[in-house]
Amino acid sequence: MSDKIFAVSKMAGVKMAETFQLLLLFLAGFGILWATVIEVFAVVGKGGPNLGDVLMLFLLIELAAMVAIYFKTNRLSVRFLVYIAITALTRVLVVDAKTMENTTVLTLVGAIFVLTLGVLILRWCEVWFGEDDEQKE
Known about the structure:
87% of the residues lie in helices and 0% in strands. By secondary structure, it is mainly α. It has one domain.
């Protein structure tokens, strides 16, 4: 009897967690869509984009693609998150470089370099060691 109760409660817990996860994914997708619309209207209101605006749109596209990939595969790629971080740091560097101190600029460039090395190492490990069994399914 207790095994049946445990199995039912475990199944209910899994379903509740999956439902909560889907709800948060929909909210994240809606938030990204909302931010994209606001950004596009801001660019149109200014009369055209600058490099910071273009990088912001790329950042929003990457976030939307990440949510879409997670919906399709139920997995979150670490490399994709690192790409987003690189784009975000690049945007900060491009938009604010003139007002930053040299040490801040060097720190951002160093962070971008380290993240890029991280992507290369992650990719190399995928090629060298292969994907896990979970990713192949």
